[in-house]
Amino acid sequence: MSAPAIDDSLQVLYRSHHGWLQAWLRRRLGCAEDAADLAHDAFVRLLVARPPQAAPVEMKEPRAYLTTVARGLLIDRFRRADLERAYLADLAALPPALYPSPEEQLQAVQALRALDALLASLTPKTRAAWLHSRLDGMTHAEIAAQLGVSVPRVRQYLATAARRGYELRFGAALPAASA
C-alpha cells in the first residue's frame, strides 16, 4: 500500500468527521478553541498510531472510534488540570519566602505531568508496586505480600515501570541488552 493511499483515506476521514468531532467537543468543553485543539489532537493520535505501511483507514463506525479517542483526550486534559490546581493550591499555602521562582514552578508542573503520564501508562499492580517502593519505602518482599504476588514478580513490575519511565522520558525503548 502506498503512502498517498493512506494519506487520502485519512484526509477523507478528517474531512468527513472533523467538524462533527469539533462540535461534539465544543458542547462538552464550552470553548471553541479548546475543542479545535482536541479535535486536531484526536486525528494526530490516529495518524501516529498507524504505521506508515498500514492499510487505508476504513472504519465501520468512525464517529464511535473518534469519540473514544476524544474521551481519552478529555480525561487526560481534566487530569492535568486537576494536578495543576492541586499544585497551585499547595503553592498558595506556602509562606512568601519559600515560594518557588517561575522556572521552578514550570519544572515542578512538568515533572508532575511526566509522573502522571508514567502512572497512567502502568497496569494497576505495576503502579501499586512502584508507588509502594518509591513512596512507602517498602522492600520487594513487603510489596509481594501486600500485592499477593511473588518477589520475582515485584522485581518484574519495578523493571517494567523503570523501562516505561525511560521510554516516556526519552521517547524510545531501551536498547536491547547485549549477551
Keywords:
2 domains; mainly alpha; 7 helices; 179 residues; Arc Repressor Mutant, subunit A
Overview of the structural elements:
With about 180 residues, the chain is mainly alpha-helical. The protein has 2 domains: about 5-120, no CATH class; about 120-179, Arc Repressor Mutant, subunit A (Orthogonal Bundle), CATH 1.10.10. The chain is built from 7 helices and no strands. The protein has helices at about 5-30, 30-50, 60-90, 100-120, 125-135, 140-145, 150-170. It is globular, with a radius of gyration of 21 Å. The mean pLDDT is about 85.
Topology of this protein?
Blueprint: H1 3-29, H2 32-49, H3 62-92, H4 102-121, H5 124-134, H6 140-147, H7 151-170
Helix pairs in contact: 1-2, 1-3, 2-3, 3-4, 4-7, 5-6, 5-7, 6-7
Portion in helices: over 70%
- Residue windows where pLDDT falls under 50 for at least 5 positions: none
What number of structural domains do the residues give? Answer: 2
Order of helices and strands: HHHHHHH
Shape: globular
Mean pLDDT, rounded to whole units?
84
**What would you call the structural class?**
mainly alpha
Q: Span from first to last CA?
A: 37 Å
Largest sheet: none
Strand content is under 5%
Instruction: Give me the number of helical elements.
Output: 7
Radius of gyration: 21 Å
Number of strands: 0
